[in-house]
Amino acid sequence: MIIVLRPDATKKDIDHIITKVKKLGLKAMVSRGVERTIIGVIGEEDVLRMRPLEAFPGVEKVMPILKPYKLVSREFRGKSTVVDVDGVRIGGKKIAVMAGPCSVEDLKGLMKIGKAVKKSGATILRGGAFKPRTSPYSFQGLGEEGLKYLKEVKEATGLKIVTEVMDIRDIPLIEEYADILQVGARNMQNFNLLKEVGLSKKPVLLKRGISATVKELLMSAEYVLANGNFNCMLCERGIRTFEDSTRFTLDLNAVPLIKKMSHLPVIVDPSHGTGKWELVSSMSRAAIAAGADGLIVEVHHSPEDAYSDGAQSLVPDKFKEMMEALAPVAKAVGREL
Amino acid sequence: MIIVLRPDATKKDIDHIITKVKKLGLKAMVSRGVERTIIGVIGEEDVLRMRPLEAFPGVEKVMPILKPYKLVSREFRGKSTVVDVDGVRIGGKKIAVMAGPCSVEDLKGLMKIGKAVKKSGATILRGGAFKPRTSPYSFQGLGEEGLKYLKEVKEATGLKIVTEVMDIRDIPLIEEYADILQVGARNMQNFNLLKEVGLSKKPVLLKRGISATVKELLMSAEYVLANGNFNCMLCERGIRTFEDSTRFTLDLNAVPLIKKMSHLPVIVDPSHGTGKWELVSSMSRAAIAAGADGLIVEVHHSPEDAYSDGAQSLVPDKFKEMMEALAPVAKAVGREL
Amino acid sequence: MIIVLRPDATKKDIDHIITKVKKLGLKAMVSRGVERTIIGVIGEEDVLRMRPLEAFPGVEKVMPILKPYKLVSREFRGKSTVVDVDGVRIGGKKIAVMAGPCSVEDLKGLMKIGKAVKKSGATILRGGAFKPRTSPYSFQGLGEEGLKYLKEVKEATGLKIVTEVMDIRDIPLIEEYADILQVGARNMQNFNLLKEVGLSKKPVLLKRGISATVKELLMSAEYVLANGNFNCMLCERGIRTFEDSTRFTLDLNAVPLIKKMSHLPVIVDPSHGTGKWELVSSMSRAAIAAGADGLIVEVHHSPEDAYSDGAQSLVPDKFKEMMEALAPVAKAVGREL
Amino acid sequence: MIIVLRPDATKKDIDHIITKVKKLGLKAMVSRGVERTIIGVIGEEDVLRMRPLEAFPGVEKVMPILKPYKLVSREFRGKSTVVDVDGVRIGGKKIAVMAGPCSVEDLKGLMKIGKAVKKSGATILRGGAFKPRTSPYSFQGLGEEGLKYLKEVKEATGLKIVTEVMDIRDIPLIEEYADILQVGARNMQNFNLLKEVGLSKKPVLLKRGISATVKELLMSAEYVLANGNFNCMLCERGIRTFEDSTRFTLDLNAVPLIKKMSHLPVIVDPSHGTGKWELVSSMSRAAIAAGADGLIVEVHHSPEDAYSDGAQSLVPDKFKEMMEALAPVAKAVGREL
Q: Do A66 and D2 make contact, defined as CB atoms within 8 angstroms?
């Protein structure tokens, strides 16, 4: 950690800081420059993170040297993590495709969608039983009934299930049905929820908050790993910017960036990341070309009847086309669908 | 609701939309322009919000006419809401000042701060017992012990208490101690939490998410009111932008804007909104001049020893100066401290 | 154009608006809904764009139906534009790769870079002779001397030249040397400059401003086309967001989006769009997979000696690797390098 | 400057950096920590700004210690600058109010507005003769004719004139008429224009770009001062964020922040900063309470006939009310109108 002093910092200010630093078992190195004096602190930086050094008299700014996360970092593990979802491996050579409706609405429709996406090459079924909705007057999900429908489609197709957990109290119920617990963008910093899914035996799909930096996403994943669950996947799903022609701005820079910073698999959601079904296929190809380990895509057999997110859902035929166009791109970057 | 059709929309597309609209009990008015045909829909727009009209064939875009919130709108209530916090009225002529440390750390310190802020004119004590922290390795709050300290200071000073609720499971406990339940920025769209505090008898302070629009803040407040709790205050605490010289960008435009859109009181947090104690006093004056009904300010007797947010905390003497400089501004806009 | 009235708009307000609309030769259709009255305006919407309808008494909001651009729209032209840069065609099957240093620094280095990128498959040489720099104390470019070096490398390699125009007064000089006039991100809304390059016979590469929407980029291109120059290419080079681990957020959504909205070719700049050379190759692949027609990439033989942007420059060997990895991706999406 | 090395940096990498640093006449101090080695560089940091240190082998990141601007910094001058605009002093105790239409449209209207704002207490007339417009089809300003109208109103009222310079070629003409040269937000990084107004004898009003940081605004002002013109004022006029209920987000944090960083006067534009005339009066009060030295406000006698920005213009009566409500706020913060 580097402490930069104000031009008018006094000797007393400097001594005061050095004394505090030493008390914490760290070493302080003072370096006097032409216009500024700086103090370098050597030792376990974490001890200092908890101290508001900027509040000390004479301090202009404080610059951390080390990263605040440990367990999620690539350095910690060296090799890439492959998450095993009951036989479906995510993070290896094979691209994982999760597909299905935004919300689970009825068994018949879900079965139709499930069979179609399975046929086109998806291995995991997505679908929300508990839905976070901006308006209290919007459809809030079918709850346990929705989970049962997901299970029926799983039994019929062999698809694994990913579904969102919004409420800590629902975790035991959802664990009975789901193969992957999804933490949605709005809950990326719901730390108590992160701790609880960190205690679960089920793999976790953690979506990036719409205004979260990549570092904050990694810090949230750190909560999951620190509680014992290393089967964690990260999902880029678009961030909020000033651009209003798309629903969000899909930040594909984050894909190769996270792969360098962390050992965890990266999934991309081109449906939320664009908000327009016409852009989903192009951005799926871009995501895989950028190095993503998987995709999560909204598919609905009749988007105009969907209870949510119809405008960004592909019909099964378009999903099939998407998968066909994706295969050669996956191959071009040394992966397979 | 206005449905704008693509230039290549067919008669079949148009008939299909009209049929659907009529089935929902609404009236459709078709208007053919030079370059585009549009369909105006008359009736209860809410019925349509749940239909993904943009997914219909031939549709280019859909433009809602009405606001998606009802109970929080100024039109709904006409006059401004005054929230009564056990005798302290917020939203009337008198400006409410909430002050205290970011986290509750120990009784002695808290008592010192409480007495000081009371003396300078604060009427409500702030302090976190449960803390949302980016890192799993940071101080997470004292929990119930912290709540007890808050109560002791309340008894000694007469200050009311505002403290954050992070977890639904903690609500009954916090209700025993707090006078206002704070929902933090990270939980602004934790809809289950919003429902639960909507069922509480305690007033709610709802902080704006760092990337939430004013409309989304109002929609989240709609959850609280729709569950029966009309004693809800909104808090502007800075949004995330590209500017990196301050911790957040305090959006004071939101103050007069919300006052026009809604009847609920607006509180401003200049401590988080700037992240720098040197800017807090200026921005407090600006907030009141813009029309805010109250402030929530971080005060710590020894910021350099604070467990969190030291850099943005005022020492009690600076808080006193802030209050003294604020009084004439409040008077200049027809309010009082 | 749709004019939504306030709930309290009077008959007088409505009549006033209708009178004004009719005077402009347009037709007004009034539609009374349950909670709002709206007025649909039929006719040439452009006439109305110049009238501040929101300033009329009784008006709540105004919603345009039509797009404000004409010449750049896909509807205007139907097919995609292929820009012919003295024999190098951009916008067709072949991907155009522009490569070279950020700034032209000396002839020897530039020649080295030019020969290397040519060998790896680039067809256009990039290099700044006039440099927009944040600081008045930074290197501002070699000016005409730099242009001469570019020309020498062109003669030796056959590469075409793209270089930035910052000042209207320099256009005649730059036209003598360059094959493509680049308008930089900072000048995307320097409308007088846009008019002047619109009057030039040379093709234009228009870079998106760091906070410009896609619509604004198209409006700026409209200035170029409206002044007679249809040989215009658009460049996505990253937008400014809150994410600070990369220099900008490369908005690849913009690629398929612009291809749907406009007939103009789209170039992607992964060097500025990431700010980190380690991410450039991955994002080049993603850009082509998303549908881009070309790339503009910074290459420097000795980034640590570069006068600007060294951290995002590839060395020639890395550029060669990038091109080799790119070829199969281009093929996978039906293009060729 | 601090250079942080990668964990895998070799001794060769370190020696290479040290050699380069020493060659530049600087001193390098190596400090080996538990997880990282860092190199502190002592001496004139500016020499290093031009070297892309991040491109050196073994370097993880580079952190500058000093600010990149000099002449605009408060440290450079100590006291606050008061700009004398032909007798009207800006930056002292008296708040400067600039008011007038967005565009100069006709003499009669301008005279009406000029007389009205003068009567209400404005001392400077604003009005655009050259207008930057997003669309090539919008009104582009009256040019010299507009300047003549401004002069006529100046002669009749005694108001000074501020008007925008868009094109370097127009400077000599505008200097004949205007008392203050305004550089608009879109041109904040048009560095050649900055150099030219820096050579002018007229005071400059430099508006912040919609996506410029405060530091970048100061760097742009540095261009003006470095070319000899110290009569420079900075203008906060709203930044672009995700919030879409207002046209821009007025960043009032920037006011006290700039006053701490720089000696230059700060003007606030609540008209562009909100885009809604209903918010202008509240935000004017907030700006002055935050410490601004002046305001620039759009006033039009008939906003519904304005050629631009009608929705954010005050009618003269509302401007009068604004000024009356502003006076006690100015007094409350020790200023006067």
A: no
- Phi (first) and psi of residue A143, to 5 degrees: 70, -140
DSSP run (H or E) holding A114: helix A107-120
Kindly report the average pLDDT of chain A as a whole number: 92
What's the CA gap between A4 and C221, in Å, rounded? 46
**Which phi and psi (to 5°) does residue B14 adopt?**
-65, -45
> Each residue of B144-161: pLDDT tens digit?
999 999 999 999 999 999
Tell me if C2-63 shares its fold with C74-332. Answer: no
Does residue C8 belong to the interface with chain B, where contact is any CB pair within 8 Å? no
The span from the CA of B232 to the CA of B219, in Å, is 13
Torsion-angle region of D143 (φ positive above 0: left; ψ -120 to 50: alpha; else: beta): left
- Chain C residues in contact with B65 (beta carbon < 8 A): 4, 33, 36, 38
Confidence of residue C50 (pLDDT cuts 50, 70, 90): low
Q: Beta-strand (E) ranges in C43-143?
A: 59-63, 83-85, 88-90, 96-100, 124-126
Among B252, B284, B335, the residue to mutate for chain D (most D Cβ within 10 A): B252
List the single residue in A255, A285, A328 with the smallest CB-CB distance to C290. Answer: A285
Which whole-number Å values give the CA distances from C270 to A255, A282, B199, C252, C286, in the listed order? 14, 17, 51, 10, 10
Burial of A144 (0-12, 13-18, 19+ CB in 10 A): middle
Between strands A83-85 and A88-90, the pairing is antiparallel
pLDDT (tens digit per residue) in B147-200:
999 999 999 999 999 999 999 999 999 999 999 999 999 999 999 999 999 999
pLDDT tens digits, residue range C238-286?
999 999 999 999 999 999 999 999 999 999 999 999 999 999 999 999 9
Residues B252 and D286 sit within 8 Å (Cβ to Cβ): yes
Contacts of C242 in chain B (CB under 8 A): 240-242
Q: Does D242 touch chain C (CB under 8 A)?
A: no
**Fold classification of C2-63 (topology level):** Alpha-Beta Plaits (3.30.70)
| B48 — pLDDT class (breaks 50, 70, 90) | low
Pairing of strands B266-268, B232-236: parallel
User: Which chain B residue lies closest to C243 (C-alpha atoms)?
Assistant: B242
**What is the rounded CA–CA span in Å between residue C91 and residue C66?**
27
Sheet holding D27-32, edge to edge: D27-32, D37-42, D2-5, D59-63
Give the fold, CATH level 3, of A74-332: TIM Barrel (3.20.20)
Please, what is the Cα angle at C211 between B273 and A64, to 5 degrees?
50
Within an 8 Å CB–CB cutoff, is residue B65 touching chain C?
yes
> Domain map of chain A by residue range?
2-63, 74-332
Could you read off the pLDDT of A194-224 as tens digits, one per residue?
999 999 999 999 999 999 999 999 999 999 9
Q: How far apart are CA B220 and CA D303, in angstroms?
A: 35
Q: Does B4 touch chain A if contact means CB atoms closer than 8 Å?
A: no
pTM for the complete prediction?
A: 0.91
The complex scores an ipTM of 0.91
Low-confidence ranges of chain D (pLDDT < 50): none
- C80 and chain D: CB distance < 8 Å anywhere? no
Nearest in space to C249 (alpha carbons), one of C225, C268, C222: C268
Question: Is B135–A192 a contact, with Cβ atoms under 8 angstroms apart?
Answer: no
Q: How confident is the model at residue C327 (pLDDT cuts 50, 70, 90)?
A: very high
CB contact under 8 A, D239 and B243: yes
